[in-house]
Amino acid sequence: MDWSSVTVEDLVDALREVDWSTPPRPVSEFFSRFTAPRSYSKWTSRLKCNLYYYRTNYFILVVFILGMGFLRKPVAILAALATGLSIAFLNDSLLTVLWALLIGLLATLLHASFRTPNLKARLNTFREEFRAVWRNYSEL
Predict the structure, then answer these.
(1) Where does the chain cross the membrane (predicted)?
(2) Among 32, 50, 6, 70, CA closest to 80
């Protein structure tokens, strides 16, 4: 598949249709083979492919980093639940929540940018796309 023709909206729509009960990819696979992309188009293609393939791993990574931020200031958990994330981002005493979320998203962006996609990731993506097309075809 040519990932350069996929828009962010297409990716978000596809992620909404995805079954999130898939288990995370192995840690040894998740933290192997990093290289810098050679062009902007290669970077966007790699980013989209990795975000789709490692979606469960990235979700766990963001939750883990948020948890680490909450360990630093445990009261932030109660405050975040009481006021919601939107107020937490505006309140100076809850700046820890904002930083933890930003670091988690930055870690996801960096990993998806530099992780070289493997054949298994590409084949899995094709399989998911085929299932989505087949589902839409069978509904007609």
Answers:
(1) 52-71, 77-110
(2) 70
